[in-house]
Amino acid sequence: MGSPRIRLVLTSPDEMPTLRRLFDDPSFHGWGGASPLSDRELAAKYAGDRLPEVETFIVEVDASPAGLAILHDDGDRVGGMDLILLPSTRRRGIGRAVVALLVERARDVRGWMRLTVDPDLSNEAGIRFWEAAGFRPLREEPASEGREAFLLMEMVIAEVGGPER
After folding, report:
1. Residues of the chain whose pLDDT is less than 50?
2. Dihedral of CA 3/25/34/39: which sign?
């Protein structure tokens, strides 16, 4: 059995049925805000309405939807990344492969120099994943309305003086 084929599919309204199936999975409940999301909320957040500042991708593994990945522009050549995979896809190296694809896009297409992630402090497995993927802790942020306390983490993906975009 060879390595899985991983592909990132930029979302559009055409992907709404796939987004609905992913967000109906219990592992997605609570991710990205309140659950369950209505179709209108799902479309507004994840079906391409926020381009170009936010790019949302369906993660496909061997041509089957397996998760969701997001790049969001934070300005000044810095962006954020979010990733959630279905449980059946986890602990197989797929998450790290997706991170590598997103880093490449952030650097080479978006021209970003740094990427951040913000796992909840209670998500110890998530923090370990992001550290293993190359992110380093910057600081803890306190809980706020609608958000648990989280750890802001960063990865430098390009050196100063790299190409401007």
Report:
1. 162, 165
2. positive
Q: Is 39 in contact with 76 (CB distance < 8 Å)?
A: no
Q: What percent of the residues of the chain are helix, what percent strand, and what percent coil, each to the nearest 5?
A: 30, 30, 40
Residue 87 belongs to domain spanning: 6-115
d(CA 3, CA 92): 10
**Alpha helices (H) in 47-154, listed in sequence order:** 94-108, 124-132
Confirm whether 95 is domain-assigned: yes
CA distance readout (Å), 49 to 102, 112, 158:
20, 21, 28
**Predicted local confidence at residue 165, as pLDDT:** 45
CB atoms closer than 10 angstroms to residue 154: 18
d(CA 53, CA 86): 25
pLDDT, tens only, 37-71: 888 988 999 998 888 899 999 999 999 999 999 99
- Domain annotation covers residue 68: yes
